[in-house]
Amino acid sequence: MNIAEIQAYGYFILTFLLVLVLYGYIYHLYTKKRDADGVDYESYSNMALKDDIDDAPVSALSEEKEK
Amino acid sequence: MENRPLEYDYTIAKMFMLTTIVLGIVGMLIGVILAFQLAFPGLNLILGDNLAEYTNFSRLRPLHTDAVIFGFTLSGVFATWYYVGQRVLKVSMAESKLLMTIGKLHFWLYLAVVAAAVFSLFAGVTTSKEYAEFEWPIDIGVVVVWVLFGMSMFGLIGIRREKSLYISVWYYIATFLGIAMLYLFNNMEIPTMFATSPAGETGIGAWYHSVSMYAGTNDALVQWWYGHNAVAFGFTVPIVAMIYYFLPKESGQAIYSYKLSLLSFWGLMFVYLWAGGHHLLYSTVPDWMQTMGSIFSIILILPSWGSAINMLLTMKGEWQQVAASPLIKFMILASTFYMFSTLEGPIQAIKSVNAIAHFTDWIVGHVHDGVLGWVGFMIMAALYHMAPRVFKREIYSKAIMTAQFWIQTLGVVLYFTSMWIAGITQGMMWRAHDEFGNLAYSFIDTVTVLHPYYAIRGVGGLLYLVGFLMFAYNIYKTMSSRPVEERELQSASPMGA
C-alpha cells in the first residue's frame, strides 16, 4: 500500500467517523429527554427568560444554595 | 452589612459600556477619514506637511482596525459578559469582593493597554503584522488583561447557582479560549535587543522592537490562521453569544430550538479553525492547505446559518415586534447581515471566485457588511437593552433610535454595494489582457474608474458614524431620563418619545 492509498483510506475513515459523531450528537440531543434523569434541552431557554436574581434556577446547582 | 435584597451589580458592565461608545466613536471616525483619504488623497495632508506623518493613510489604518476590533468590539464583549454572565448564572458580582476587584483591575488595565496601543501606533511603532501590530511590551499587557478576563469569567461560573451553562456562556468561554490561543501563537516574537548580527553587533534596534519567530510562508500561515480566527472568535462567537441572550430576552420568546443552538455551537467550533487558509489562495502555501481552507469555508455556512436561522425563527409568530420595536429591528437586521456575510465569505473562498476577488475592494466590502451590519448593530442593540436595566431609566428616545436604524442601514448598504462594484471592476481590469497577453490596463486606470465608488463608500461610512453619534447621544440622555420600575423590565425595553 503506498502513501496515496493510506491517505485515501484515512480520509474515508475520518469522514465516516465525523459523520457518525455528528449524527450521534443529534440523536443524543433528541433522545436524552426520555432517560430517567434526562433533561429537556428546550427548557434551558428559560435561563435567559427567567433570569432575575430571585427567579428559581432551571436546575439548581445545589439544594442549599437554592432560594 | 446592611440588610438589602441581593441585586445584580453592573458596575463593571457600565465601565465597559463607556469604553465601547468612546472607542467606537474613535475607531469609526478614523475609518471615515481613511475612506475619504482613498477618494481624495489630498486629505492625507489635512493638517499640513509637518503633521503628515500622523495623518497619512498608512499611519491611521492600523489605528482604525485595532480601535474597532480591540477597542469597540472587545469592550462590547466585556460589557455584555459582565451583564449577561451574572444573569444567566444567577449570581451577583456583589457576592464576591474578589471577583469585583478582579473586574475593576480588568477594566483599568484594559484602559492602560488601550492608551499604550493608541500612543504607540500613532508614533509608528508596529510589528507590521495585520491586526497584530502591537509590540511585545503591549502584547504582555494584553495577555495580563486577558488572563484577568478569564479569572473573572471562570470565577463567576465557579460560584453560580444555575447548574447548566446557558448557550451564550459557552460562546463567551469559546471567545476566551480561542483568542488566548490565537494571540499567544501569532505574537511569538523575539525582541531585537537579544539578536546578534552576522558582523557580531548586539543590542540591535530600539528596546521595544521585535521580529516574528516565524519566517516566510510559515509566518503567513500563522498570521492568517490568527487573522481569520480573530474574525471567528472576536467578531462571530461573542456576537452570537449576545444575540442568543438579547433577542430572546427583548422579545420574550424562547429560542426556537435550543438543540440547534448546541449543534451549531460545536459545528462552528470544529469548522472555523480550519478555514484561515482561504486568505492565502494562489500563494506559496501548499496547495492542499489552500483547498482545505476553501472547503472548510464552504462548510462554515452550515453552523453559521444554524444560529442565524435559529434567531429568525425565534421571532416566529411575533413579527409584529420587528415593526413595533427599533431594538428588535437592530437585532433582526444583525442576524440577517450575519447570514449574508457568512454566505458571501464562502463564495469568495472558492478558488475561481477568489482569482477575481483577492486583493480587491470586494474583500473590504465583505468585512464591512459583517462588522457594520452584524457586529456593530448587535453591540448597539445589546447596549440599548442593557441601558434601561443598568441605569434603571427608560431609553431616552425611540424616535432617535428608529432614525438611527434607517440612517445606518442606508450607510451599510451604500458601503457594501459600492465596494462590490469597485472590487469586481478592479478584479476584472487587473486580469484583462490583449491577444498577446499584454495587460490591458495599468494600475492608475483602475484608480480613475473606482473614484466615484470610493466617494460613495466614504458617504456610507459617514452615515454609519452619524448614526453611531446618535446612539451615543441617546445612551447619554438615557442616563438622565425618567426612572422606571425595575419590575416592569421583564422583556421589552421601555422607550421614551
In short:
The complex is a heterodimer of chains A (about 70) and B (about 500). Chain A has about 70 residues and is an all-alpha fold. Helices cover about 50% and strands about 0% of the residues of chain A.
Overall geometry of chain A comes to: elongated
Structural class category of chain B: mainly alpha
Give the N-to-C terminal Cα separation of chain A. 66 Å
Greatest interface (CB-CB under 8 A), with counts per chain: A-B, 26 and 31 residues
SS elements, strand count of chain A: 0
The helix count of chain B comes to 16
Q: What is the count of helical runs of chain A?
A: 2
What would you report as the Rg of chain A, rounded to the nearest angstrom? 21 Å
Elements of chain A, N to C (H/E) = HH
Q: Spans of chain B with pLDDT under 50 lasting ≥5 residues?
A: none
Task: Write a structural description.
- The complex is a heterodimer of chains A (67) and B (497).
- In chain A, 49% of the residues lie in helices and 0% in strands.
- With 67 residues, chain A is an all-alpha fold.
- By secondary structure, chain B is an all-alpha fold.
- Chain B has a domain at 359-497.
- In chain B, strands 1-2 form a two-stranded antiparallel sheet.
- The model of chain B has no long low-confidence stretch (mean pLDDT 95).
- Chains A and B meet through helix 1 and helix 2 of A and helix 7 and helix 8 of B.
